[in-house]
């Protein structure tokens, strides 16, 4: 193939949550040029999209927003269905929380890869992690490796005309990712992130995402900037 992608160009999948914001900070320090993509797939936690715009502005990174409403039309998860709460067990996938959206990462990452190629970037980054997560099978390293190979085949690429998906948080627990953000000097970015599956501000503190986030900051011994900001705002 004649198509050559920029080996230093990177597109970051940006939800506006803690993990994707940490990956954005990592990308800003290691890659150039950088752009980000956010997906509107009918998710319940709308605040994430607003957070995404704020954080990309702080980072000075161009943000693309793409709509994939088919995930909401299909349903099948508490994040995309009005009749399923995120605090419940998943009705179809025993052992997984209701927040699991079947094949979400397959659809979103494949779409992001298409945009990255369109922008001429040879790299895509995502905040998926299998060390400290809610059990989603599409956050595992084996899935990312498989998807990368599929995308390469779909593009007809062989090295050096290659495409990579980077997952710098894959083997970090939440405490380690908090410390990484602190080391990069971007802890203040996390004050504007949104993690709560119940779309609450201040965070509800009860949903799986809030529980995992709180545990990470506690174990890191670092106060959560989001909690501090929400307390300041609510006291006004």
Report on the structure:
The protein is an alpha/beta fold and 236 residues long. Helices cover 40% and strands 12% of the residues. It has a single domain, classed as HUPs (Rossmann fold, 3-Layer(aba) Sandwich). The chain is built from eight helices and five strands. Helix 1 (18-30) runs parallel beside helix 2, helix 1 packs across helix 6 (174-183) and helix 6 (174-183) crosses helix 7 (208-220). The mean pLDDT is 87.
Write the layout of secondary structure elements.
Blueprint: E1 6-13, H1 18-30, E2 34-40, H2 47-59, E3 62-67, H3 70-74, H4 104-118, E4 121-125, H5 141-155, E5 164-166, H6 174-183, H7 208-220, H8 225-234
Parallel strand pairs: 1-2, 1-4, 2-3, 4-5
Helix pairs in contact: 1-2, 1-6, 6-7
Mean pLDDT: 87
CATH superfamily: HUPs
Within the largest sheet, what's the order of strands? Answer: 3-2-1-4-5
The Rg value, from CA coordinates, equals 17 Å
Low-confidence stretches: none
SSE order: EHEHEHHEHEHHH
Based on secondary structure, the structural category is: alpha/beta
Relative strand content: 5-15%
- Tally of helical runs: 8
Task: Provide a short characterization of the protein structure.
The protein is of the alpha/beta class and 236 residues long. The protein has helices spanning 18-30, 47-59, 70-74, 104-118, 141-155, 174-183, 208-220, 225-234, and strands spanning 6-13, 34-40, 62-67, 121-125, 164-166. Helix 1 (18-30) packs parallel to helix 2 (47-59), helix 1 packs across helix 6 (174-183) and helix 6 (174-183) packs across helix 7 (208-220).
């Amino acid at each position: 193939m004649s198509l050559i992608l920029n080996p230093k160009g990177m597109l970051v999948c940006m939800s506006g949550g803690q993990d994707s914001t940490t990956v954005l900070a990592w990308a800003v320090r290691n890659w150039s040029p950088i752009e980000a993509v956010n997906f509107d797939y009918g998710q319940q936690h709308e605040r994430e999209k607003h957070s995404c715009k704020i954080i990309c502005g702080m980072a000075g990174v161009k943000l693309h927003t793409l709509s994939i409403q088919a995930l909401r039309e299909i349903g099948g998860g508490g994040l995309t269905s009005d009749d399923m709460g995120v605090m419940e067990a998943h009705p179809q996938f025993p052992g997984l929380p209701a927040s699991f959206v079947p094949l979400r990462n397959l659809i979103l990452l494949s779409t992001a890869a298409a945009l990255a190629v369109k922008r001429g970037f040879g790299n895509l980054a995502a905040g998926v992690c299998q060390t400290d997560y809610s059990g989603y099978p599409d956050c595992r390293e084996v899935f990312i490796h498989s998807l990368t190979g599929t995308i390469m085949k779909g593009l007809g690429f062989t090295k050096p005309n290659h495409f990579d998906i980077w997952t710098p948080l894959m083997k970090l627990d939440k405490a380690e990712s908090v410390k990484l953000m602190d080391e990069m000097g971007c802890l203040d970015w996390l004050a504007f992130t949104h993690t709560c599956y119940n779309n609450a501000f201040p965070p509800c503190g009860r949903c799986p995402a809030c529980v995992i986030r709180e545990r990470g900051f506690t174990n890191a011994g670092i106060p959560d900037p989001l909690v501090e900001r929400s307390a300041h705002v609510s006291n006004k």
